[in-house]
Specification:
- It is a single chain.
- The chain has four domains: 125 residues, Rossmann fold (3-Layer(aba) Sandwich); 170 residues, 3-Layer(aba) Sandwich (Rossmann fold), CATH 3.40.50; 70 residues, Helicase, Ruva Protein, domain 3, CATH 1.10.8.60; 46 residues, Arc Repressor Mutant, subunit A, CATH 1.10.10.60.
- Helix content is 47%, strand content 13%.
- The protein has 19 helices and 16 strands.
- The strands form five sheets. A five-stranded parallel sheet has the order 2-1-3-4-5, with helices on both faces.
- The longest helix has 34 residues.
- It is elongated.
- It starts with 5 loop residues before the first strand and ends in a 7-residue tail after the last helix.
């Protein structure tokens, strides 16, 4: 792209567009030329352009109509009208149609350059304002995702960098880590935050209804189909479709989902024709999709289609002081709902919150604090106000540096304890555990079976 700007010339006149192209290229503009309005609109849909300059008389469409279509479809790109046969009526009509300027050829080169520079600056200013608004929307969406740990700062940085992107995202993490909050943040920071955000939990829909739910159905497609119904893909048109627990999809639906994502079209159940859709896809799962792919329970090609960008959310036990940050947030919320005045946590209660492993993650923490507020008798949450599982929890340690020989254990026991510790730290994710241990997943499986630790699927 030229530093001075990119101009799309529309027209087939040798006395106008052809001459103008040569003049503009000599002055440092990047110039593309299309002979018709239809070809110009196709070019705009696929390329970044700063300004459109169209001849008044085009072979397929009046330039004034082209101005209207450019304004509707590409509102940040200013259209200019060029003519060597000016009239007062056409100049007024052009400005009413949304033309940024009306240029009469021939005109002094300096005047032409000034007009184009002004239009290009207008385009770039509008583009920058939109970019800043998207970043602001992403920042605001962070308000729902609370955290100051390094893992969360890294997540916020990634969300910032994805601002404006429409690429598919796969969000992974244990149950309760906030996958839907991240999906909503991606939507708000995307190019169409005003569009619909449609969320569906794939595990909550019976297999027999999944296809109809996702793709819709025609009237009379089955017994109860008394009227046609849009599926979730079409409901999300112009926005974001969030498929939660995508790892629960049966293979038959996976194949149809892959086809829909490849073609950007869906065929409602019982319909004769396909319907196009334009929605960004964000998928989420707490399953180990890598393992499911190797075991043949998840399509490899669909996995690659979904996993263009991967966000792996950290479990709460890996977020350090974020536990207390979230706990105070939930405390304020619970106090508002219960009309109680509880200001904080005793040192003993805070220590218990930090030591506990939170297998249910943020959702479990919120439930815990709500219960603690209900039981609290003073202006602070005490350890006795916490649920028994939190209050009585004892941290597990792998003993290595013992001085007393009686405290030392066999290598087999040490390996078993460490395997359990690693699996607990990664929430049972065998792919992550194998990566930490530096072994192949098959080797890990054999060790788990040896110690009777093979977790149920």
């Amino acid at each position: 792209m030229s530093d001075r700007g990119t101009v799309l010339l529309v027209g087939d006149s040798k006395r106008l567009s052809a001459q103008l192209q040569q003049v503009l290229e000599k002055r440092g503009f990047a110039v593309h030329r299309r002979p018709t309005a239809a070809l110009a609109l196709e070019f705009l849909a696929e390329h970044d352009v700063d300004v459109v300059a169209a001849e008044l008389e085009l072979p397929d469409l009046p330039a004034l109509e082209l101005c209207r279509r450019v304004r509707d479809a590409f509102p940040d790109v200013p259209p200019l009208v060029l003519t060597d046969r000016p009239t007062l009526d056409t100049s007024v009509a052009a400005l009413r149609a949304g033309a940024y300027d009306y240029l009469i050829w021939p005109l002094p080169m300096e005047a032409l350059a000034i007009s184009l520079d002004r239009a290009i600056q207008h385009h770039r200013l509008r583009t920058e304002i939109k970019r800043l608004r998207r970043r602001l929307a992403v920042r605001r969406s962070h308000a729902e995702i609370i955290g100051e740990s390094p893992a969360m700062r890294s997540l916020f940085d990634t969300l910032d960098r994805l601002s404006g992107s429409r690429a598919p995202v796969l969000v992974t993490g244990e149950t309760g880590t906030g996958k839907e909050l991240v999906a909503r943040a991606l939507h708000r920071g995307g190019p169409r935050p005003e569009g619909p955000f449609i969320a569906v939990n794939c595990a909550s829909i019976p297999d027999s209804l999944l296809e109809s739910e996702l793709f819709g159905h025609a009237r009379g497609a089955f017994t109860d189909a008394r009227s046609a119904r849009k599926g979730l893909f079409l409901q999300a048109d112009g926005g974001t479709l969030f498929l939660d627990e995508v790892g629960e999809l049966p293979l038959t639906v996976q194949a149809k989902l892959l086809r829909a994502l490849q073609d950007r079209r869906v065929r409602p159940v019982g319909a004769d024709e396909e319907v196009g859709f334009d929605a960004r896809l964000v998928a989420a799962t707490n399953r180990d999709l890598d393992a499911m792919v190797e075991e043949g329970r998840f399509r490899r090609d669909l996995y690659y289609r979904l996993n263009v960008i991967h966000l792996d959310l950290p479990p709460l036990r890996a977020r350090g002081g974020d536990v207390l940050l979230l706990a105070h947030c939930f405390l304020q919320r619970a106090c508002e709902h219960s009309a109680k005045e509880v200001e904080g946590f005793t040192e003993a209660a805070a220590r218990k919150l930090l030591e506990y492993q939170w297998p249910g993650n943020i959702r479990e923490l919120e439930n815990c604090i709500e219960r603690a507020v209900a039981f609290a008798r003073g202006d602070e949450i005490e350890a006795d106000d916490l649920p028994d599982r939190v209050r009585s929890y004892r941290p597990s340690h792998v003993l290595v540096a013992a001085e007393n020989p009686q405290e030392l254990v066999t290598l087999r026991t040490l390996e078993e304890r460490y395997l359990r510790r690693v699996l607990a730290a990664v929430g049972g994710n065998k792919t992550a555990a194998a990566r930490i241990l530096g072994v192949e997943r098959k080797t890990l499986y054999r060790k788990l079976q040896r110690y009777g630790m093979e977790p149920a699927d």
